Amino acid sequence: MMKNIPFAHKDAYESAIKNASVQSENLTNGGRKALNQSNFLGYVPSESDNFGLSWSMEGYINDWGLYQMSKKQHKLAEAKYYKNRALTYAKMFDGNGQQAADKWFKGKKQDGSWTTDPQNFDPTSWSRDYTETDAYNMAVSVPQDGNGLANLYGGPAGLTQKIDQIVNTPGDFTTDGGVIHEMREQREVKLGQYGHSNQPAHDILYMYAFSGQPWKAQKYTRDILKRLYVGSDFGQGYVGDEDNGEQSAWYILSALGIYPQNLASNQFVLGSPLFKEAKVQLPHGRSLTVKAPNNSDKNVYVNSVYLNGRRIDKTYLDYKQIMRGGVLRFNMSSRPSTRRGTQQWQKPASLTQGRKAPQVKTDAFDKGQVVGSDQDYKKLVDNDSNTVTTVKNNSTLDVKLDRARRIDMLTLSNSTKDTKFKNVKIYGSRDGKHWRPVDQVRNVKFTYDKSTKPYLIRKTFVPYQHYRLKFEGGSGQLGEVELLGNMD
């Protein structure tokens, strides 16, 4: 869709939205784990799944794709909502360490506490939180926001330190259960904790593009291309899983010196090509010839890049540039170009700009004091849409915050699709007594049972300390209500 390739865009979009917003009783047929909680907590709690961290991190990447698709489909509310969900990876980051090497993505419980305390945390453990991997291989799994990730680690230098730690820490592993083949294969890669044998690791080295030393991606990807794809020479095939052709795709793209580190961005990070010349046939009779005439086992570093004679100072190309074809020339060297790609404008796209940590909008009902007119109103704000209450005509739900704050979005989660309201009105107040209209959502209805829908709130109102929702012209069963804004 982002590349404007003809197919049923609308159907694909609606399917993706359903997958991310409607509870599924059979994940084999689609859907995500524990949406009744993860949509509101911002993560899959360990009580719902022992590998909740992996479910969560993969979900954030998918939400980034939905953000891009929503913009393409001109769905502004969904775009803003899924952009926020894509940033929620920051909730899983334990940044209490003194340096980047001591900071990790970890699983969480329902109450927001970590699944392991600092004294017992073992980043080499494959026993919980991380699916078929460990904390090292999930430490930079944020392709949608490399700059925001770097900021969490203290800046580009901190991200460099973290990836260096992954490739330099011995590839030992621990487990409370049985040993699976991925554990042994990671060790056999012989690149520290980096597990090229399995999919969670495949973006790690290209995340150097957001670090202070992007040239290190060239060093390590060339090492992998040289050592880990020679199994046919002695009858052993690949070093690990070839699920859906991913090992092969990584090789082909990396050997060409271009890699789709962030798929929905249409950008390809520039790496280090393996061959002196390679030609790719493109549609409409075009072709892209990749040339690196002084390439060798020693000359693995890129000094400069030219596309059709024009110097490329950024660390990436976009899809349109590639599809126009021509000649992509890499000038190689035995020494790294330590300045190339280190400026912010040279780096690939990120959700977070500048030097601040990712800003995640959270629920006002989690922040403040809540009062409702219905007897079971607390079920609407308990971060579990499986606890349901019947919302009647003219029901209200109030929240008092610590101070005046702006809200940006309303989300409603139904139990049954026959839930309908003519209007859901939003009011604001400074004192909790005198109310002024903020906005309203008209003709609220749902396509599916157990689904979550976002709605935008207009930006022009004055922030209030008190907010009220009023449901008019209908009734139905709701499982959760949110008012999202900057609550920190």
From TrEMBL:
Annotated GO biological process: carbohydrate metabolic process; glycoprotein catabolic process
Keyword Hydrolase among UniProt keywords: yes
Coiled coil: none
Gene Ontology molecular function terms on file: peptide-N4-(N-acetyl-beta-glucosaminyl)asparagine amidase activity
Pfam families associated with the record: Glyco_hydro_92
Cross-referenced InterPro entries: 6-hairpin_glycosidase_sf, Galactose-bd-like_sf, Glyco_hydro_92, PNGase
Name of the protein this chain belongs to: Sugar hydrolase
Source organism: Ligilactobacillus acidipiscis
